[in-house]
Amino acid sequence: MARDPAFVLRYLAEVEELAEDVLAARQQIVDLDVKRNRNREALRALHKDPEPEGKAMVCFGNMFVELPKARTKEMMQKDQEHLDEEINKLRKELRVKVNRLYEAQGKAELKGFNLNPMTAEEMKLINRILEG
C-alpha cells in the first residue's frame, strides 16, 4: 500500500522532533549533574578545610568574590538542593518524553521505566519485616 509522501514526511518530522526533545533533556540532565558534582566537591573541600572560620573565594560568573566560609557553605548547600530538585524534575519529564517517542514510533511502552526508588523510611520497614 503506497503512503502519501506528505503523511510520511509529517510522521518523520514528528518523530525527529520528539527524539530531539529526549536528547536535549538527557544532555541537560548530564550538564546539571556535572555542575552538582563540582558543587559537591567544593562543599567537601570547604568541610575538610582546617580553618573553618575565615573567608573563601567564590566565583560568580566571571567575577571572584570573597565571602565568609559559613555563608559560602550555606549558599552551596541551597544550590545543591536546587540542582537535585531540577534533576529529579527533568528525569520525570524525560520519562514522559520517551513514552511519547515510543508511542509515535508504534513501539510498546517501556516496562519498569516508571519505577520510583524507595524512601529511607520504606527501606527501614522492609528490613524490619525481613528481620523477623
Overall geometry comes to flat
Radius of gyration: 23 Å
Structural class: mainly alpha
Mean of residue pLDDT values = 90
What characterizes the major β-sheet? 2 strands, antiparallel
Beta-strand residue percentage: 5-15%
Q: Termini separation (Å)?
A: 64 Å
The main sheet orders its strands as 1-2
Order of helices and strands: HEEHH
Number of helices: 3
Catalogue the unreliable spans: none
Compute the number of strand runs.
2
Helical proportion, percent range: over 70%
List the helices and strands and how they pair.
Layout lengths: L4 H44 L6 E6 L2 E6 H37 L14 H12 L1
Antiparallel strand pairs: 1-2
In short:
With 132 residues, the chain is mostly helical. Helix content is 70%, strand content 9%.
